[in-house]
Please model this.
Amino acid sequence: MNKDALGDFISEIVNQLPHASGEVRRLFHGRGRWWPGLEQLTADWIDNQLVVAIFKEQDDSFLHRLKQALNELAGSVSWGKASGKAIIIQYRYQSSSQTEVITGDVEWAPIVTENGLKYQMSLGKNQNSGLFLDMRLGRDWVQKQSHHCRVLNLFSYTCGFSVAAIEGGASVVVNVDMSKPALSVGRENHRLNGHDLSKVKFLPHDIFKSWGKIRKNGPYDLIIIDPPSFQKGSFALTSDYKKILKRLSELLSRDGTVLACVNSPSLTSQFLIEQMAEYAPDVKFVARLDNPAEFSDIDPEAALKVMVFR
Model:
């Protein structure tokens, strides 16, 4: 990256801070490649804390200039008006995702608000903080579509879609994920929003070992498929997605809807359309949802793909 471009980075953050409105938001998305020289840099606003992420190793001169610029930001009028509390850098190219505090007292387990709903996040421990901010409009869509629906949330992680579905009036949501800790955070997310947990099921389950537990809670009016692009030992998108699509006929209600997602820059939306046509031909493509404007990419097909089928 180019240290001389860091002025643009700080200027964009200053421009976006007034629009954060107290909610969790991405303020700078260099990975969308609209900012030459800053392609490996992002910044998120999380509970009045600026979380800067670097995705590729940089030389010392770039890091020095970045830290200097962030310290200057922390002393600015704009930072004060936004009630900024802390700034941290996450070195995402390191396996341990090392985190460095630049300034302030960090709240490492903040409770944030998105579209009026509360979520528990975690900073500094893992690369993923508990809520994928680029899926904001997807969660909003699920909330609007879930009234009186039975919902299946595959690869549910911390159950963000589930929270949106219950808030939208879903009759039941079944969350499936291999990670018990992630599901525990999901349960807490529902509690934070005052939801009736009798309507929510949590299955710490490998879907490829058995579909019986999942099938017996169906059929489902809405099925959400949001897998990792690659998870060593458990999921490879290009070879395993079809295994899920083949099951839709026994899981989906007659007029049911599928929200299928792909977040790999190497796969286009056509991948999902073709896979669905081949392995679940009765389920037809309807539309691709927009991504949040703050996640704009110079190549939309390299960004998150969120596709509706029915």
